[in-house]
Amino acid sequence: MNMKHDIKPGQQHNCLSIGNTPTSGRRRRCRTLKMAASLSRVIRVQRLVCCTVQNAEALLDPAMQRHFPSVIPFRTKKRYFIPPVVGGKGHSPDNLEARAGQAGVVVRQEYMERAVNISCTAGVFDPYIPPEGDARLSGLSKEGLKQRTEQLKQSAASLLAIRKIKELDSEFNTKEFPAQAQDIFIQAHDALTHFNKEKLHDLVTERCYPEMVRGNRYKTLRWMFVESLEPPRVVHARCPDMVSKGNLYGQVTVRMHSRQTLAIYDRFGRLMVGDEEVPRDVLEYLVLERHLVNPYSRWRLHGKIVPSWAPPKDPIIKTVMIPGPQLKPWEEFDELNYEVVNPKAVQWHK
């Protein structure tokens, strides 16, 4: 039985139509295509369920577990192994560079050189030799007059160096510079006792910094400048150059005789050297340096000259553990019957 349906204008139809005039045959084909698509979806779902069930059975079956290894192999990094040549000639370390050149491989040359810091020199140029008995002999005695004449002979080179320093540093003055050097010395040691590294780098050179901080780890420093026994004065001056002829540095040695207090405590709080309450007279020869070519440089503490006739330093008292008797668990230590052996004083050096 044929049934006709009228389609109003603007109404959409589910099946394909040509010219908006659907027929019964075309509707049947649309229904058949829909049914086929639904059946294909059902078949796919059934196949997926079957595969899932089979995989689950294979995992549960101990006989089937050998087909599913627990470790999944995957590709790793390639490792090239070249077996050594047995009895090969020309494989000694001396011929490696020649063989590399024949193969076209450029071997970079290694330079065993140290880094150079041009902001300061590596040491004290022509160091000042302090006269023996300085600060002890009177200038009116016979030996004191001999020392004064020797200083006048050695001052010729210092005068030439001071003249060259004044050409590059217009503010340098031998009368005002000793007070400036003493101020730099006090500030540097105050920064050292408070472990102020930033300020210490501004007051001392790169050569002097490791010498001041070496051996001070886990220690407590107590230092104080009490007074100046004699006014500081310039005793030596040099103007060396480094790397090139025009790269000049100024080194000035200042004699400073003062009274100071120093006490060093170890990490346990025990006194090692010195005393905070007992001041001592100290005679020092300070070397200050400046990079004269650099307009932004400043005078900094570069080192210290220790004369050969200086008295030896006091021995450092170190805290050590003295082994006692080996006691058994049921024994007690009796201090009255045990003698403690006092160790001998040893001169320790940093």
Strand content: 15-25%
How many distinct beta strands?
Answer: 4
Give me the strand/helix succession: HHHHHHEEEE
Outline the biggest β-sheet.
Answer: 4 strands, antiparallel
End-to-end distance, in Å? 120 Å
The helix/strand class is alpha+beta
Number of separate helices: 6
Share in helix: 25-40%
What's the mean pLDDT score?
78
| Poorly predicted spans | 1-21
Strand order of the largest sheet: 1-2-3-4
What is the global morphology? elongated
Query: In angstroms, what is the radius of gyration?
Result: 46 Å
Structure in words:
There is one protein chain. The chain is an alpha+beta fold and 350 residues long. Helix content is 29%, strand content 18%. The chain is built from six helices and four strands; from the N terminus they run ααααααββββ. The protein has helices spanning 24-60, 96-103, 142-168, 177-193, 197-203, 209-213; strands at residues 220-238, 249-265, 271-291, 300-305. Strands 1-2-3-4 form a four-stranded antiparallel beta sheet. The termini are far apart.
Quick take:
With 350 residues, the protein is α+β, with helices and mostly antiparallel strands. The protein is built from 6 helices and 4 strands.
